Amino acid sequence: MKRCLLGTSELEISTIGLGTWAIAGPGWEFGWGAQEDADSLATLEYAVDQGVNWIDTAAVYGLGHAETVVGQLLKRLPQSRRPLVFTKGSLVWDEKTREITHSLSPASLRREVEDSLRRLGTEAIDLYQIHWPSFPPGGPDEGLEDALLALHHLKAEGKIRAIGVSNFDVPQLKRALAVTSIASLQPPYSALMRDVETEILPFCEVMEIGVLPYSVLQSGLLSGKITRERIQTLPDDDWRKARSADFQEPRLSQCLKLVDVFRQIAERHQVTPAAIAIAWVLRRTEVTGAILGARRPDQVDDLLRGAEIQLTAAEIALIAPSLPTGTGTNVPDSQS
To answer: Which residues form the NADP-dependent oxidoreductase domain (predicted)?
Structure first.
């Protein structure tokens, strides 16, 4: 798989990285339902075997569980096969109530980094990202500069190799760059969420900030495997069923219409609609690598095919009229 440098860092990454939100397991507010760790480990290892050289996770996924699973993977792989690990902080939780809150406190971030290092079983985190500049999104982001300065010091200490941010807008990116070097931005970006195309992607290109989109398949909706009937059978603790507007009418019909167009193009390439949805995001030169999630090894190959396809101008033009208006749901209640 093609690799390229992530922003101004020394990290060389594959076009596809594997995300771990969906394998974080049940028992937390934003879970996807039950998941066996054995399946998660098999999926992660298979992806690495196929050329994926980075895994994106976060402390809050499963309230530490996703990082623990990634740590198990690192332990079982020889150094020559170990992928880069990207994780995130700023979302913390109460161990008793499991309530998730937000903190940009330097002391909290230092503690979070140490906890992540312990769960991952590694001496350094390849890319450490501020998960959200505010929580709930759009709220106050006081302390942003202090938080970034704390990460700058942790990088100098060798605990993290590069600093990234997630869900930042352009003004917040400018504030971040005034404090330290920023290797990457992780924004939501899919054919259903295109807001970043106006200002954020051009800004990142000019400032040489790598872009790692998440929710590329809109939590599975653009995979081609989601139907109205399947949505009804999702477990009650799967956040998409009750809390995502994309999975409910009237937006659901618009989304499924787009999937039908992806399916037409996919048949020509002998791939799934998921591969076309991925290729659509990767068509942008500003995008360094896309974060994709999988829960079983047999789901990985479809994702990797998206990195091999270059959509033609005619195919892009065919997709354009079916792109829904409005903003999609990247996370429950716009929170992750």
So the answer is: 16-319
